[in-house]
Every structure is written in C-alpha cells, then in structure tokens.
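B., you asked whether I could sanity-check this one before it goes into the benchmark set. Here's the sequence:
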Amino acid sequence: MTPSLDNLIEQVTNQIEDSPLKNLMTSALTVTLDKQKSTLQELIDARNNGDLTNEEFELEILREKQIAEAEMLTWQISAKSEVQKIINKTFSTLVDTLV
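And here's what the prediction gave me:
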C-alpha cells in the first residue's frame, strides 16, 4: 500500500493533541483501517491499472471513509457503555458503603 498504513496512522495521530484518548483513538483507527486494508489496496491498484476513473475512485474512497466513520462511531458507543458501567458501579459501591 502506498503510503504504508502504519505511516498514515502515525501522521494522523500526531495531529491529535496529547491526551489520554490519543492511545485509544490510535488503536481504534488502526483496527478500523486494518479491516479495510485489502479493499483500499484493491482500489488503489484498480485506479493505477486504469480499471477505475478518478471519479469512480473518489466515490469508492468516500464509501470507504463512511465505513470507517461508522466503525469509529461503534467504538465510541462501546466506550460510552463502558464508562456508564464504571460510573454505575462506582456510585453503587459508594451508596452501599455510606448506607
């Protein structure tokens, strides 16, 4: 793949401010793009071989972008669920301790 997926992820995550979420976002992005790696490579090869016009390529890349966004939103929902579980358990324990 041109450029390498790891380099691409590194470039993007370097733009994210230093925060505790940076590692989580990097992991989520890596998993998401790993799932699409072969499809993205096939699209690049098809364009380079003339099997896709630039317009067709851009449409397919947009579709892959939407798939990646949906995958990242799934990660967000999962993270929110975990946060809710932790908060519920924390406050339940707090109430049990005080009562």
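One thing to flag: The chain has one domain: 5-98. Otherwise nothing jumped out at me.
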